[in-house]
Amino acid sequence: MRTLYQQRPFFYFCFIFCIQRKAAYYWRAFLRRKMHRTKTISALLAALMLAALWAPSLRATQTTKPAVVPQVQVQLLTRSTRRRENCRFSYGGTVTLIGAPRGAVTVEGWNRNEVELTADIELKAETEADLDQLAKVNGFVFDEDLNHVSILTVGTHDRAFMKKSAKNFSKKLLNLPWKIDYRLRVPANTDLEISAGHGPVKLSGVEGALRVSATESETELTLTGGTVSATITAGNVLLAIPVRSWRGGGADIRVAAGVLNVELPAGFSGDIDADVLRTGKIVNTYEELMRREKPGITERIVRARAGAGGAFFKFTVGDGTVNIRRSGEK
Prior knowledge:
Blueprint (H helix, E strand, L loop, with lengths): L3 H4 L1 H55 L13 E12 L5 E5 L6 E6 L3 E12 L2 H10 L1 E6 L3 E7 L4 H7 L12 E10 L3 E8 L2 E4 L4 E14 L2 E16 L6 E18 L5 E15 L4 E3 L9 E6 L5 E15 L4
Parallel strand pairs: 2-6, 2-8, 3-7, 3-9, 8-10, 9-10, 10-11, 11-12, 12-16, 13-16
Antiparallel strand pairs: 1-4, 4-7, 5-6, 13-15, 14-15
């Protein structure tokens, strides 16, 4: 039997040629896939090597914190000066005092027909030149009239004043600490308007119409009469009444947050209302206080009368305590 090569040589060569072409095609495809796979593996290996090299530096970058440079506290110089003012003043006049943002206010009544003011001004700055600049703007204005004296504090806290009087003032000096302590003596029958900032306030021996306000203060009112209105944002207030009978309309004292202590003498006569608006309580240890109307005497509301009644006292605390006690008790 003859083979295909013997019978059809041409077809035989065509068949062999096609098989060789197919074999060559598949072989080249196999080589291309192998080279691509090799390149991919090489790229992955290179990426892993780079990640291994960079990882320590990245960890160091993430864990290393910049060194904190300690801030050197500058020792401020202090300059204290005392200024005195006085003027003739008739009974029944009005004295207005607008205090500094920080500082004490002490007002005493006396039997002279004059007003005497002593002010201790304390300034702080880094240099003497800065203190000189502050001394030009921080102070007060004493203005007297026939029946009115006004003491108005001016300084770096008053933007309107600074824009008007110190346009080229250094901004670095605006926030430096300073204070003024006022001590004021006035005729006993004088109307007072006191506006204080942060600091103690003490009033004694005055029986006029008194209006007192303070931002944060330890306030002591030792009074025997007058019509008193006091508003304290935060702090403790002591109202001490050393006489049995109050001469005047009474007192309305409001404390937003703090403690209000009321000290009454034995045998005192007056009507008392007390309220705690939010949190806190009223502690009454004054045995002579009796119920005047409903709800009487509770830990949140007091409607009471001492003795025969008389002047009206209203005590209001937002958050805190009202203590009503006999003089001398603690």
